[in-house]
Amino acid sequence: MTQFLTNVLNSIYRLIGNYGWSVILFTILVRLVVFPLDVRSRAGMRKMQKIQPELNKLQEKYANDRVKLQQKQSELMRRERYNPLSGCLPLLIQWPILFAMFGAMRQIAYEHTAGQVFTFLSGDSPIYEGWLWIKNIWMPDSLFTSLAPDPNSMRIIGGEVWEKVFATFSQAQQTNILANIQAVVPDFSGILDFTKEGLAATRNVIETALASMPLYQQQIAVLPGWGNINLMLFKVSVFVQHNGYLLLPAIAGVTQILMTKTMPGVNQPQQPQQAGQPNTGNFMKYFFPIFTVYICLSSNAAFALYWATANIIAMVSNLGINAYFDKKDAQQALLNEEKTIQ
């Protein structure tokens, strides 16, 4: 599935010509595919909310009789036609799709990053793929990230990706790259070994060669006086040619908060928690926005753009689904009232 989604994203890019807008359209298409699952999940969650007060009463009444409690709970769920899996199963089905989407975007990012590195090694400067204020969409949107790929972004790329991208260069370009490396790394063997056994040594050769190339060094230069600044638990540097302004991580965090507020049950009065039962509502409200900002700060801008877009789409769809079910509930309540009067 990852390769399929990679092909879809690349196909969209060939039509649009910009990966930033391609990621947005790609995210919309994926969310449309999983939308029916969202609706089914939401229906199950709303039904669970309706019967929750009755379940709480049963838990109090049969607190000392587990067998009787399970029997009464089953009777209640059958009477209300509620399936415990109806709320969580559609969500579980979505996870493989979302993980495959993440894998597809990561694969494309790795390939573009490797391509930029080889372009530097050939003696040229890469033509970066930007989006609005972001100069290189395959690096994080941050003042603390350089425009060009840094060693950390190179070290997470697997050997098969390096080998695949290197093969896309012509024989003359490959020869030029190897000659340029040899000129600044005298003990270089003349072969880039991308196997599992030789990858670490090859990375060291590449990093050593880049350190001797002025064009690359200009694009990873730190702003004077702004290197290795202590920021709570982290040390950061502000780059002369930084890649962004931290906007996408901030947008992703804010939209995560707003999206969570549109989820059913978040803004409703909390039911009393049973002993030892975790408060998942508070976990969703406080943990996920922090986690979102962290992930988007440490990931490339394309992934942060996907996350922010997905949040906005989820927020809009949540509002629409909530309005739809509220209308259905109101119609059902009116119908029940008419039957009572008759």
Write structural notes for this entry:
The chain is mainly alpha-helical. The chain has a domain at about 150-220. The protein is about 70% helix and about 0% strand. A hairpin with a 2-residue loop joins strand 1 (about 230) and strand 2 (about 235). The mean pLDDT is about 85.
Write the layout of secondary structure elements.
Layout: H1 2-16, H2 19-61, H3 66-79, H4 85-121, H5 151-155, H6 159-167, H7 171-184, H8 199-211, H9 214-219, E1 229-231, E2 234-236, H10 247-261, H11 280-298, H12 301-341
Antiparallel strand pairs: 1-2
Beta-strand share of residues: under 5%
Contiguous low-pLDDT stretches (5 residues minimum) are none
The geometry reads as: elongated
Helix and strand sequence? HHHHHHHHHEEHHH
- Evaluate the radius of gyration: 27 Å
- Span between N and C termini? 56 Å
Mean pLDDT: 84
- Kindly report the oligomeric state of this protein: single chain
Total DSSP E strands: 2
Specify the helix fraction band: 55-70%
Number of helices: 12
Class of secondary structure makeup: mainly alpha
State the strand order across the main sheet: 1-2
Main β sheet profile: 2 strands, antiparallel
How do you describe this structure in short?
With 342 residues, this protein is mainly α.
Distinctive features:
2% strand; two-stranded antiparallel ribbon; 342 residues; mainly alpha
